Amino acid sequence: MLIGENGAGKSTLLRILAGLLRPSFGAVTVFGEHEPHAARARIGYMSHAPMLYDELTAQENLRYFANLYPGRACFSPAEALRQVGLDPELSRTLGQYSQGMRQRTSLARVLLPVPELLLLDEPFSNMDVESARQMVELLSGFRQSNRTIVITTHQRELAAPIADWILRLHAGQIASITPGAATPDSALGSATQ
User: What would be the CATH architecture of the domain defined by 43-135+146-154?
Assistant: First the structure.
């Protein structure tokens, strides 16, 4: 989990990991690739903006995005929606969804190509408490399926129960690294040595 005040560099770091930006200096290695964009097929990135079409249903949105992955094994739009707890047969357009449902649809879009690394920028923003709790439960389930998840958030208390590590950024630098509630005891021992 990445935390820090506005402008600390959280979203920029996610974009660099996703291969959407190049670092000003230094190097980034993702899945052994020295150029993160080379590992893009294994990465799912959910930006702070939903990147969905309000005039389409959730399933229509996902059908559109699934076409962007020709030749790749993907979840069907219906399966991706079920993964995030949404009914794929819901006929309402996205413009009529609650913020929590929109965020879950955004997450379903990210899950379509079955990524190994999920980069989620403020996944709890503008959600009510119950919707945010449901999102945390979903992410907890994804952690169990050997996916790595990097979350930026201003709501530390929401993600802390599922975080292995909490990195606090300040002015583009790592200010602190602390173990999260989900950190295995063996990792704590090696981290303190």
Answer: 3-Layer(aba) Sandwich (3.40)
- Per-residue pLDDT of 169-178, as tens digits, reads 999 899 999 9
Greatest CA separation found in the chain?
55
Tokens of 178: 């602390």
* Sign of the torsion angle spanned by Cα atoms 181, 184, 189, 191: negative
Cα separation, 187 vs 145, whole angstroms: 19
> Could you tell me the two tokens for 175?
């200010």
106-116 burial code (b ≥16 CB/10 A, e <16): bbbbbbbbbbe
Given this model, what pLDDT does residue 131 score?
82
Q: What's the predicted TM-score (pTM) here?
A: 0.87
Give, in order, the Cα–Cα distances in Å from 125 to each of 14, 158, 167, 170: 16, 11, 19, 20
Check residue 26 and give left, alpha or beta (phi > 0: left; psi -120 to 50: alpha). left
Cα distance between residue 83 and residue 79, in whole Å = 6
Residue that is written with structure tokens 């998840």 in the block: 149
For 49-87, how does the pLDDT look when each residue is reduced to its tens digit (9 = 90+)? 888 999 999 999 999 999 998 888 899 999 999 989 899
* Domain ranges, ordered by start, for the chain: 43-135+146-154
* Per-position DSSP letters for 93-149, written without gaps between them: BGGGS-HHHHHHHHHHHHHTT--SEEEEESTTTT--HHHHHHHHHHHHHHHHTT-EE
